[in-house]
Structures are given as C-alpha cells and as structure tokens.
Design brief:
Oligomer: single chain
Number of strands: 17
Strand content: 35-45%
C-alpha cells in the first residue's frame, strides 16, 4: 500500500497526519504508526494523527492521536492545533471549528495565522513542596528550576516520569524558569516520545495555569517560550479553577509525501 501523508509542526512539535475519512488505515495498526514516526526508518515525528469523520452532527471531524511509540495517547495540544490547520487546508473548515478528541469536544479558531485551541477546563491543581501536578488533557508534572538552558531534561525528566507516584502510567514533566512578568520558559520531557520535545501544548497550558495558581503571575494571559518557539495561553479563573482556556500559536505544513507501507 502507498500511503499519502502530511507533515506538520507547531513550534517544533512535529506530526505525521493522515486523512483517514475513508478508513485507509486501521486504528489498531500501532506497529505502522510507530514505524512512520521513527526518525531513522520512517518519516520521523513526535506523534501521528488521523483526521476522521465526525461522530456527531455538531463536529467537523474527529481527532485520533498516537504517540511516537505507536500507542494511542491522551490529548495533544500542539497536535490539535496542527490538525485544525490541516482541516482548513483540506477545505473541511474555514476559520472556526468544533471537533472531538480523546478528552472530549474542542472549539478552535484560526486568526491572523495563529490557531486558537480551546482546552478542557481544569478544576484541580495539586500543589507539593517541589512541584505541581495537573491534567490539561494529559498529565503534567511542573517544577521550577534555575539554569534551564543547561538543565539535564532527558535524564531527570525520565527519572520523574518513571518514578513514584507515576510509575507505569507515567507523566509528562515540565521544567520552568521565569523570564519576567507573565513570561516563562519551559523544557518538557514527554512520555510516549520518551525524550525531550521542542514543544508540548498541554505542557505549556499546564505551566501557564501553574504559574497563575502559585501567584508567580497575576495575569490571565501567559507567554511561554519553548525550545521551538513561543506560545500563549489565555484563561479565566473562577471559583472552581480555570475555564475558557486557549492555547495559541502557529501550525505549519512542512511537506506532503507518499510512503510504501
């Protein structure tokens, strides 16, 4: 089989995307997805997404996301933004959309070349002496560090991801340094990729909410610098936590290709 694919990236977080509205690949073919994401023997990506037909009348499409290891994963924020851009490229949408991912329904809008993706509300942020933990569609461990540029993200991130209390289920791990005001820098170790990635959308969202929850900023718009570029997160604080959360940034098509499977 010759498979047509598209490569997208959002602040350096890169994805293989397949238009699967005609079910050309099986969602159970995890070995294929892992091979396509392999940077030595495949196309190379942090993850793979299938754009599928909507499951209800309110949606424009369905998002199905797989980690680089081939396993279906929790929500991917940058992936969601890239899939919205892909849907616009295909002509499925214009500049506004509603779609369903593994964590539920999402609204998104493309404005001035940036994709604004609404994330799920967050009601629970666990605060510990050394870190915070919250779920922004995917689980995230957030900790402040000094000297972020020289920090050993891969080894320390792997130890935290695999250690107590996460163990086999694992958690994404974010190391954060304040820049100024409402601006922060982050480096993220992602489970499923099992390495540092240039950017993580759900991680950036987790960082923005954590910085507000710990009063390191009082702004409801936070700028987060990743290794692959800058993202913004806007939100509203309410008595239950955070709502109207939007992850904002670029999503670009890198190339289109064919691969023999």
């Amino acid at each position: 089989m010759t498979l047509t694919f598209y490569k997208y990236q959002g602040t350096g977080n890169d994805f293989v995307i397949i238009d699967n509205r005609e079910s050309i690949v099986s969602k159970n073919d995890t070995k294929l997805f892992a091979r396509l994401c392999d940077r030595k023997f495949g196309i190379g990506a942090d993850g793979l997404m299938l754009l599928e037909l909507p499951g209800n009348q309110e949606d424009d499409f369905t998002m199905v996301y797989f980690n680089a290891d081939g396993n279906e994963s929790s929500m991917c924020g940058n992936g969601g933004r890239c899939l919205v851009a892909f849907a616009a490229f295909l002509g499925i949408i214009k500049n506004k959309t509603t779609f369903t991912a593994i964590d539920g329904k999402h609204y998104a809008e493309i404005k001035d070349g940036l994709v604004h993706l609404q994330m799920q509300d967050v009601s629970n942020i666990e605060k510990y002496d050394s870190h915070l933990f919250l779920d922004t569609g995917s689980p995230h461990h957030v900790t402040m560090v000094d000297g972020l540029s020289d920090f050993d993200v891969k080894n320390i991130g792997r130890d935290i991801r695999n250690g107590a209390p996460y163990f086999d289920a694992g958690s994404n791990v974010n190391f954060v340094e304040k820049r100024n005001g409402n601006s922060f820098a982050v480096r993220t170790y992602e489970r499923g990729v099992e390495d540092e990635t240039l950017s993580c959308g759900t991680g950036v969202t987790a960082v923005a909410l954590s910085m507000h929850a710990t009063k390191l900023t009082n702004k409801e718009e936070v700028s987060v610098q990743t290794q692959g570029g800058e993202l913004r997160v806007t939100f509203t604080k309410n008595h239950n936590g955070y709502e109207n959360i939007f992850l904002i940034g670029p999503a670009k098509q890198v190339f289109k290709g064919e691969i023999v499977c």
